[in-house]
Amino acid sequence: MTDDAPGRRRPGRPAQLSRDLIVEAVSQADNVDTLTMRELAARLDVSHGALYRWVKNRDELFDLVSEVVVDRVLERAGAEDQQLRPWLTRLAWAVHDEFLALPGYATHLSRPHRHNAHSIDRLRTVVTTGLRRADVPADLADHSWQIFITCVVSWLAATENPLHLSASTPRFDLFLDTLVRGLPAREPGAPRP
């Protein structure tokens, strides 16, 4: 086997860390929610100190992961179009696929914790802007965003926890169809659009 053969490290400095390498290593964990910084450093084959130069703690690690996940979600959902409900459906499926690709991520997000304001605000802004373009008043656009993200993340977190998942849990496509048909939020008693 030569020094260039796959699976064998070359002597010298280890490969530099990058945002993508860190997120790739996180994605290979059994459960993102319980992954420790030491375990992640070992997965990356770097010292604990080298990892801490990138992310100082688990909160910063989740911030970094959230940035990448939101980038991927927005790229997969595509540009917001004139048809609000089909776009919200694409966005929700992108959230579904990207969040579940990181086991434990939705569970982590569903519990109270310090969210990455930048990433979450990017997602919120895109959704509320789309709702506002559909002539939804600002306050109801914000309520619609909260309903949308809370429902989707809660459903995903439930699927990650087999104790909460049951045969009566609706399939994501059924759940999503019902959720999206109910959006945007409207004042009680107001007619459906």
UniProtKB/TrEMBL annotation:
Keyword DNA-binding: yes
Keywords for the protein's UniProt record, in alphabetical order: DNA-binding, Transcription, Transcription regulation
Top-level taxonomic group: Bacteria
Tagged with keyword Lyase: no
GO MF, one example: DNA-binding transcription factor activity
PANTHER family: HTH-TYPE TRANSCRIPTIONAL REGULATOR RUTR, TRANSCRIPTIONAL REGULATORY PROTEIN
Protein name: TetR family transcriptional regulator
Phylogenetic placement of the source organism: Bacteria, Bacillati, Actinomycetota, Actinomycetes, Pseudonocardiales
